Amino acid sequence: MNTAFANPFDLTGKVAMVTGSRTGLGQAIAIALSQAGASIVGVDRGPADETRTAIEAQGGAFLPVTADLSTTAPLPAIVQSALDRFGALDILVNNAGIIRRADALDFTEEDWDAVVDVNLKSAFFLAQAAARTMLAARPNGKSAGGKIINIASMLSFQGGIRVASYTSAKSGLMGLTKLLACEWAAKGINVNAIAPGYMATNNTAPLRADAERNGQILARIPAGRWGAPADLGGAAVFLASEASAYVHGITIPVDGGWLAR
Ligand code: NAD
């Protein structure tokens, strides 16, 4: 029996970097990848104590890296931190993201740049830095390859309202996922994305606090509930593992059926 395929979702021995892992979806993705066996490099602008405690409690390894992804300046050092601690970087999850809400007529350049810089620009340049490591030749002359997972959005598919920079960045991120897959699939990197539906996190607290918007959103989710961060774990482990070896450039909605409506 080929034991390598006994559990194609097994991430034992892999090193996974998750940005925005202090809270919300990034925290849940980091915990899920750790449960599948990966060591976690958690990148966030604030301390990720809660994530670290949860991962270490389940016997996993967690390296916190404090960095602000609103510029590209810290990116080389972030990748180097993973290499220094674990000697490799196999999986990157570009999850860190922010949102700014205003009518398009009033939208400021500051709100445009802030969102695009974190959600799109830093995601690209971190993918580039990670891919250079994943594709570097090892002593045997071959590269290790890797997995890159971008966290997209329903607004990669739809327009939304009052979130011009967010929709632009997330639509761009889905396009970028396809471009990177085309360039790197043959080199051994799977680039894919997950599009979460409406998930209960800090990011969506204002929507849930608005009774009218909350009701409108719930009414069109076939599953009948907001998503929980842990709902993303299965798709994240799938895209991070050998189970998705021939999967390139797709964006998987994990949305309770929102897009099917
Ligand atoms: P969240 O606000 O709960 O968490 C975002 C995390 O990113 C936080 O830990 C934050 O500290 C970190 N972060 C933000 N800016 C950063 C920066 N400049 N440098 C470093 N870290 C930074 O949000 P969330 O809901 O967990 O969202 C995670 C991702 O999922 C985002 O990309 C978001 O756009 C996307 N998303 C969320 C939903 C949802 O319904 N919650 C839906 C679709 C997509």
From TrEMBL:
- Family, per the entry? Belongs to the short-chain dehydrogenases/reductases (SDR) family.
Q: Tell me which Gene3D superfamilies the record gives.
A: NAD(P)-binding Rossmann-like Domain
Domain of life (superkingdom):
Bacteria
Pfam families in the record: adh_short_C2 (PF13561)
Q: Which PANTHER family match?
A: 2-DEHYDRO-3-DEOXY-D-GLUCONATE 5-DEHYDROGENASE, SHORT-CHAIN DEHYDROGENASES/REDUCTASES FAMILY MEMBER
What is the protein name for this chain? 2-dehydro-3-deoxy-D-gluconate 5-dehydrogenase KduD
Kindly state which keywords UniProt assigns to this record, in alphabetical order. Oxidoreductase
Q: Which organism is it from?
A: Labrys neptuniae
What is the E.C. number?
1.1.1.127
Q: Which PROSITE patterns match?
A: ADH_SHORT (PS00061)
The molecular function GO annotations come to: 2-dehydro-3-deoxy-D-gluconate 5-dehydrogenase activity
Gene that encodes the chain: kduD
